[in-house]
């Protein structure tokens, strides 16, 4: 091969590499920077928040010419949150608006509060718009509010009318609600009644861990007390919810499933269980997994005790590139009118009581769930839910019960005593530095 | 490389250094040449070592430094000296010992059947077969499948309520097995994914080594009246010894780093490796400590412990090789 050709080719390759190396970073930087007079505001979320699907971004862009919104979605908070933590520490790579999960928001307010804008002072924010407990969750000890509440997860119990009828239980949603009103132990009693005449192949509820979550979130103090002292495994809420879950598992009232796993999905389709504690965000999921066959069979009744399970916030990091625009967007997206529209489209339940009187909620009925008046039903639970006290490593502590202790009893047949010890060990490993 | 150097009048095989002082006009070129011969190779391998330093050595050392500090993911820029605290705590942590035990058990459960099957498959492929290429390609397909895809399919097969494996067991009259929740069943299931993925790869390595064994050895063995099995045991296996040792080392390293299969087999919250950590490997334990309980310092200590374990195994391998050489 002649010497000249490879050299020319080599030069070309070198040039190409150089162009790529230079263009890479420039291209990336250019995408976020102002092009002409357009500002691109980025929104980082975990999972589907539904703003785009509900047309809220499009409307905001229409109201604010010169602003473009780009969403960066990470599917799971498990991945999203560690990424957010490293980016906060590095002070770069952050989206202009970052969504925060309720299990993390206390930790962030306590340990990283200085990295976020204080949104309580943002123009257009009225503290009284939000449920007081939602507002408190994202507020630092020195009174700065790092996140504006988006959705919450007021709890209800979804039940199968057809299975209840065949088991000889009442089927109207008021009667069903009365069946266990006030106490989750009454819910277990209903479960035992169901078991006596259970249609073949069905059990009362899906999973003991789901029951634990529903029960424990009705208590203000769970793993920490109001003064911030760790209760961990010593709190009465944890103890009573644990007993409830273990009892359900050992009485054979559960289908021994793990929520959001394949088996769980299949059990919806096959009609394996008659009840599940359901926040509003679960209804869409249930409808999808139960399929057309479940239409009109499911209904929604009030949970034994009002509680909130799950929920999110929108925050603006100080290191955001377009802080002002980001604050404006976060304020607009979390305003009562927008939250009501999001509920209509996505089923995310507003954390702003002003939304509850809006037609999207007040008149909301879910045809799949027997035309249940889901707006007023969940709003009652939201108003009654306690101000949950959160502390550091909240998620890990909860997982010690729902992913380790309870499944050990329910699915691996271990003694409650051994499983409790395992959960304690798990918490020790998570909390101790 | 040196042949293209314009200052070299002779072949590169003849060192020219001795003639340099007597040849002043050529000395500049010759000095360059000498420099080239001496440092050229280093310059050429330098890029690799540069990358090695940046992406392997530095992180390795930094991990070592971090393992001696208290660093939490919630505020990773704050590092507080902790000495050997993390290591001491690991030794007292039953979850660490559980992960180590699981790693070894799953390692043995997956490596031994894997290599034995691979050897047998290679032996079969070595005999003349129709469509040999097809069989070889078929063997390699599991290796070309992504861990994620393979594990997802296997988790479906091992499903408790609607899995194919339980359906077959049911047809045979055996009760359904809760694969993921049983201690041994879960370990077996994870091992089976590893075996499925890597057997073909190892078989091809063995096959290549078998094809390098001289035919005369087999001919003389045949003249001596050795059966196919005896030929395999007394000719093939001894000739394959270096390859076998190599695959053992590589599989051991792979087993110690086992991560993707158990993680995905566990579904949501897979980093725990099951409700009682029954299939949590060291890799998963590290991941859980760092990215789920946010103890970065402790995770680094786990990483270094794994590294030291590998060094230990490498030393063991060196000793074994020396012993084997003495044998031969």
TrEMBL record, chain B:
Residues 100-315 form the ABC transmembrane type-1 domain. Pfam families: BPD_transp_1. It is a multi-pass membrane protein. The keyword Transmembrane applies. The keyword Chaperone does not apply. Residues 1-27 are annotated as: Disordered. The chain crosses the membrane at residues 41-62, 104-125, 137-158, 301-320. It is found in: Cell membrane. It comes from the Bacteria. One of its GO terms (biological process) is transmembrane transport. GO terms for cellular component: plasma membrane. Residues 1-19 have a biased composition (Low complexity). Keywords: Cell membrane, Membrane, Transmembrane, Transmembrane helix, Transport. Its main location: membrane. Belongs to the binding-protein-dependent transport system permease family. This is ABC transporter permease. It comes from Streptomyces mashuensis.
